[in-house]
Amino acid sequence: xxxxxxxxxxxxxxxxxxxxxxxxxxxxxxxxxxxxxxxxxxxxxxxxxxxxxxxxxxxxxxxxxxxxxxxxxxxxxxxxxxxxxxxxxxxxxxxxxxxxxxxxxxxxxxxxxxxxxxxxxxxxxxxxxxxxxxxxxxxxxxxxxxx
Length: 147
Fold this sequence. Notes:
Layout: H1 3-10, H2 17-25, H3 36-104, H4 107-116, E1 126-128, E2 144-146
Antiparallel strand pairs: 1-2
């Protein structure tokens, strides 16, 4: 084989569009030779599809995270509502107990119980004593009596 024939074999021109169109119909079952521009377009479309899929995945993951966060917030709110009800019940019970304690400790009730159940008698004459300061020098003070 000559050098020129060998060079011709290595550098063959791309087939014409007419030849390609004829081959498509001649039983090549959808096989075509793609040019650089069409290959670049397909590569760009593929990249765009991948970016759209990645963006959709990121958005879906973000929505799942937001939904999970909302579920946690809702669960905590239910817990807080339960604690609020419990606190309100405890406060009401405490107020009732304080009222009952105040009623039980009232001086008129204690005096009535002492007179009726314990037999206390109110004295006719009350003697009041003046307190003495042991560190003070001087004469002792007088005690007073009153009615």
